[in-house]
Amino acid sequence: MKSCKWLIFPLLFAGLGIPVAAQTKSAVVEEIVARVNNDIITREDLEHAHASLEGEAHDACPACTPEQLRQQVAEKDKDLLRDLIDQSLLTQRAKDQGINVDTEVIKRLDGIRVQNKLPSMEALETEITKSGQDFEEFKSQLRDQMLTQELIRKEVGSKIIISHDEIVKYYNEHKAEFVRPETVVLREIFVSTEGKPDADIPALRKKAEGLRDRILNNGEDFGEFAKRYSDSPTAPQMGELGTFQRSQLDPKIAEKVFALNRSQMTDVMETKTGFEILQVRERYEAGEQPLDKVDPEISNKLYEEKMEPGLRAYLEMLREDSYVQIKPGYTDTAAVKAEPIEEVAAAPEKDDSKSKSGKKFGIFPKKNPGT
C-alpha cells in the first residue's frame, strides 16, 4: 500500500506551524519513480516536496529576488529524491525496531494547537482540513517524522562521542568566536490559560508552581519537564528558546533573567496567555568566555559536525540492506547503487523479491497484502 514520503526535516506550513502534507490523492494512476522495499515514491510526492522547498526558500528569504530563490531551490532540489528515499528507509527501520512515539505525537499536536490559539483538537483538525490536507494523513506524516528523529538519536547520535581534548583543541583554535556581549541562554516551561474558563486559572497557576517546586526541591530535570508538561511549541526541543542579549528581551524579563546564574529559574510569571517559567541554561559575561562556559556549546557544535557524516553512513548501510529501485530519468544522489525500475504500470502487489536482479528485501519483511 502506498504511503506518502516527505523530507526528514519538513517545512512548516505557512501560518499554521505544521509540516507540509500531501494534498488529497486523486484516483488517477500515479507515476512511480522509486520503490523502497515495499513502499513507493511517486512523481506527485516529488512535486509536493519541490513545492515545500519553494515555500521554505521564500519564508527564509522574503527579500530575495526570484532568481535568487530559484538558485536556492535548485541547490536542494538535486537531492530531493534522495531525501525522500532516506525518509522512507528511516521510517521503515524505526517501525521495524518497534519504536513508539504515539504519546509524543499527541503532545506535538497539542503544541501546534496552542501555538495557533485554537480551543480544541477538533478546531485544529478543522484548520488542517481547510488547508486541503487529510488530518489522519497529517498525523501519520508527523508520526513518521518523529519516528525518524528518535531512530537517528538512538542509532546515530548515541554513538557520537566528543572527547575533552577535542573541545579544548577547538576552543584554542577559535577563541575569537567566544568574545561575546553579555548574554543568557534560556529555556521555558509554559502553562497555557488560553481558551480556559476563569475558574480554571488558579489551578493552572498551581500546576505551574508545582512544576517549579519539583524542579527546585526534587532535582527534576527542567528540560524533561518542559518536554512532558509545557504547552509551548518549544516543548519538543525541551523548552529551548535560544540566546539573548539584554536589548533583545522585554526590560522586565531582562531584569529578572540577568540577575540569575546558570540553572536558576524565575518565579512563575503570569502572561496574557498563561504562566511562564524561564530557566537560565547559561549566562555569559561580556568579553572572552572561559572554556568552562562554552564547553557545552563547543560539544554541541562538534556533535552536529559529526552527525551529518554519521547519518549518511547509517543511511548507506540501510540502503545496502534494502531493495531500492529508481525509474530511468530520475536521479538519486546517494552513493549506493540502486536497481532501475523496469515496470511502473499499475498492477496488483507482487513478490518483488523475485525480480530479475534476484535481490531480496533484506532486513525488511514484506507487508501483508491489504495492510
Describe the protein.
The structure is a single chain. The protein is of the alpha+beta class and 371 residues long. It is 44% helix and 14% strand. It has helices at 43-60, 66-77, 80-96, 102-115, 121-130, 135-155, 164-173, 201-218, 222-229, 251-257, 291-320, and strands spanning 12-13, 18-19, 32-36, 39-42, 179-180, 183-192, 240-245, 269-270, 274-284, 287-288, 324-326, 339-340. Strand 1 (12-13) and strand 2 form a beta hairpin. Helix 1 crosses helix 2 and helix 3 packs across helix 6 (135-155). The relative contact order is 0.13.
Order of helices and strands: EEEEHHHHHHHEEHHEHEEEHEE
- Number of helical segments with 4 or more residues: 11
Mean pLDDT over all positions? 82
**Biggest pleated-sheet summary:** 4 strands, mixed
Identify low-pLDDT runs.
Answer: 1-27, 343-371
- Return the structural class: alpha+beta
Strand content: 5-15%
Level of helix content?
40-55%
Report the span from N to C terminus: 7 Å
Within the largest sheet, what's the order of strands? Answer: 4-3-11-12
Q: What would the principal axes of the Cα set say about the shape?
A: globular
Number of strands: 12
The rounded Rg comes to 24 Å
